[in-house]
């Protein structure tokens, strides 16, 4: 799957991105399963969504694959969790 | 505060980093004030801490100020929230 010519630092960045993106999976799944999002901070989710979208733009401006992939994927997960929070309070 | 010679893209990155780092402030404050962290996913916090620490290493490898500052600061906030979660369950 990983392009053998990709430099080690990019692979490090892709791995870091996988962790930070995946780190949202348990929270999104927990919010989806339990429908209990009372302890989740709406402000946090909103700020985070804005932040990862800006990081995405930063990645594009720098042509940095790891930043583009990680923040694009995280934005999808955060938006999903935000929708659940909006729905369930 | 911002170095006038800093290029626009770096400033964009610092701003994105401020958002994603600040996005953890409400969650850390909420966890600190309410001591109620039941809905917070321990797995998420652990994965996120590992991820932002790796991003920090990535930033150093790339010499990318925005990534270094954002992920260093986020690591501190996430570690604090993780400690509260460990303490309060």
UniProtKB/TrEMBL annotation, chains A, B:
Protein name: SemiSWEET transporter
UniProt xrefs under Gene3D superfamilies: 1.20.1280.290
Subcellular location, record wording: Membrane
Pfam families: PQ-loop
Principal cellular location given in the protein's record: membrane
GO MF annotations in UniProt: sugar transmembrane transporter activity
Membrane topology (UniProt): Multi-pass membrane protein
Keyword terms of this UniProt record: Membrane, Transmembrane, Transmembrane helix
Membrane-traversing stretches: 40-58, 65-84
Superkingdom of the source species: Archaea
UniProt key word Transmembrane helix: yes
GO (cellular component) term, any one: membrane
């Amino acid at each position: 799957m990983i392009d053998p010519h990709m430099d080690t630092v990019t692979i490090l960045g892709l791995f870091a991105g996988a962790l930070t993106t995946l780190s949202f999976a348990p929270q999104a799944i927990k919010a989806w399963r339990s429908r209990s999002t009372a302890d989740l901070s709406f402000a946090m989710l909103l700020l985070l969504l804005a932040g990862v979208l800006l990081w995405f733009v930063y990645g594009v401006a720098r042509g940095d694959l790891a930043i583009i992939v990680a923040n694009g994927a995280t934005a999808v997960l955060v938006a999903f969790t935000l929708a659940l929070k909006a729905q369930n309070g």
